[in-house]
Amino acid sequence: xxxxxxxxxxxxxLKPANVMVSRSGSIVITDLGLAKNAPxxxxxxxxxxxxxxxxxxxxxxxxxxxxxxxxxxGTPLYLAPEYLMEGTADIxxxxxxLGVIAYELITGEAPFDGEPLYKFLIRKVKExxxxxxxxRRKCPGAxxxxxxxxIHRNPKKRFPDARAFLRAIESxxxxxxxxxxxxxxxxxxxxxxxxxxxxxxxxxxxxxxQGAALTVKIVWGVALLVVLTCGVILMTVFLMKPxxxxxLLQGDFQTVINTIKLVFR
Length: 265
What we know:
about 260 residues; mainly alpha
């Protein structure tokens, strides 16, 4: 994001779903479909227009909402209050979105997530969220303060850009962070993503799972076939050719082999 801002580009749709971690640990920002040139981007996203009401109607109770192109832009949970009110985005809107992501990483939920629609809209614009360290006691107060500055309702009181936000976080000397409990769905997605190489595409995880299951079935099938075959051979030999048993006990393996050959003639 710092690199984008250095080039005068706004992402405008920063959210966890658009932040990927490769197997090597590299962070990749995806989905630049809504990116625009800075410093300001105008759009009709005020509370008083029908387009805004449309996206609000799409906002689910769990706060996810939808990305759209045209008048309605971005995902409500991660949109800055001034963008909701005035419809104009600048670098501080990306800073706000990054702050919400950081808030969610520490507390396990985004500010005002899960609220009924009308309460979400009012609180988003008029209230400050609960400070992270009050929700997670092990969260360092200094980190909590930095996050709150990034998501300040007044854009002039936020970090001026992503680089300033980054430097503030890097200045902290944090030994450990609180463990956040995530949903079963998010945990499954996280575990699946750990098996994906950087250049893999959609459906890879499912294909890997199916392939692994098929491999296990094949191995067990072959093993069972070998056991059954050996059992049939031995049973047939010793039932039809009793002398083979005596030969086996006496260590005369050539007689046993000759007997097996006779069975299959």
